Amino acid sequence: PWWNLEGNLRRSKNRKQQQNVSFSLTSYNAPIAWQYRCSAELLNRQLPGPVNFLAIYENAYLTGQNLQHNLHLDHTADKFRNSLLLWQSEDNTEYNNTQAPNPVYQSNNRQRQQSLGLKHEISYDNRLALTLESSRQTYALKDILAPSQSIPETSRSLMAAALKANHSSEFGLFSNHLQAGVRLDHTRQFGTFLSWRAIAPQFRARN
Fold this sequence. Notes:
A 9-stranded antiparallel β-sheet has the order 1-2-3-4-5-6-7-8-9, with no helix packed on it. By secondary structure, it is an all-beta fold. It has one helix at residues 54-57; strands at residues 16-29, 32-46, 61-77, 80-97, 107-124, 128-143, 151-171, 174-187, 191-205. A hairpin with a 3-residue loop joins strand 5 and strand 6 (128-143).
């Protein structure tokens, strides 16, 4: 058989390498603050497979690169707060299993994923908050050995709006807290959905 259940069952080609670098810039100059972060990653992993299938996965490997950007802006004025988050990330990987002694499961494909979006929130005195969000994800797969199995670039977009409210009050020796929220999501593939959440007043004795 092409699988092995005897002999020296040891995964000798199992090395993994990973390199990361990141940096950030921050500024706090009231009433405006901002922070920018960037990170990058390179990876190279040998993937020998299970010990009883070494001959069909020998010399297989996965390589990849990942890059992420994040920018956060924050502005406060009296009881109002205005916050904006922007992000972008891209991930590229390649899997190669074309050099095995026993070419049973030969494979070679490249994948690409990307995410891009923004989130904007305006809040008042931690009591009322309005959030607007928009994002887009893309994915593509290129099969080198079997082009017909490739997946052309596909994308998914999301738009959302949410409103949250918090209310607290005191009655003599007691206090209560009420929370409520509603969210509207829209995607081209799945349509529009409305969700809500409410937490009944919680009365507690004050110390």
